[in-house]
Amino acid sequence: MSKRKARLKREAPFYIMLAPGMILTLIFSYIPMFGLVMAFQNFNPGKGFLGSDFVGLQNFKFILNQPNIWRVTQNTLFIACSKMVLGILVPLLLALLINELAGTRLKKIVQTSFFLPYFLSWAIIASVIFQVFSLNGPINSLLEMVGADKVSFFTDNAAFPWLIIFSDTWKGMGMNIVIYLAAITNIDQSQYEAAVVDGANRLQQVRYITFPSILPIVILTITLALGCVLNAGFDQIYLLYNPLVYESADILDTFVFRLGIGQKLYSPAAALGFIKSLITCGLTGISYYLAYRFAGYKIF
Description:
This protein is mostly helical. The chain has 2 domains: 21-56, no CATH class; 69-295, Orthogonal Bundle (MetI-like fold). It has 14 helices and 2 strands, in the order H-E-H-E-H-H-H-H-H-H-H-H-H-H-H-H. Helix 6 (122-132) runs parallel beside helix 11 (234-240) and helix 8 crosses helix 10 (202-225). The chain is globular and about 75 Å long.
């Protein structure tokens, strides 16, 4: 038996394990890409992809001439970038604080409490947010107790984006906390022992040992997040927003959804989705290059 056949026989179980995931990826990720042809057609569901007329770049011109497109893009960038910044800084700070807790059991309890929201769907989280931030909810009751005016979080264009940003940070910070704590546990403890001998206090140990040691992981999470800068969270915003806050919370994904599903403008919606995908693809490539350049991370 040749070496190639022997290797194939040895690795066959692993290929069998990969097969279901590869098949699902092919069906739901690659085959639907053929639908991008709609972006260059006046798509008619009755005629299908092969029967619809090609119109070249007219759909792209139509999208770029929409009066709301630049406001929607601005909303997307603001919400996505704010989520990215807080989604890195808040878990980093909490991971450093959790690491300083004295008891191992207390650390596990606190870490688990932060990680639990990550497992809940936005459908559940949205219902909780509606109850907590409603006009008669506990947040507005607390504001009244301290003498402040009530805030209509779901109709105020100034408050609603921050509600989206902070709720997303709260829900997703558990995963990054785990990543940063894992990086902290890999730090050589002899460095801390030497720092104690030199008279360094806890804050100085964090500043000169802990943070520099996990900095490559922080850089990696930042660079990998760049590829998602145009993904401001469709499921979260779609469940929480309403027409009164379109001005500040309407993003590219919700705009595409309303065009394609709501107004039946399939081709313009596909054109906008195609533009977004191209930009995202470019940003993902840049993020992987930066991850390799500054953190030594290689995907291939």
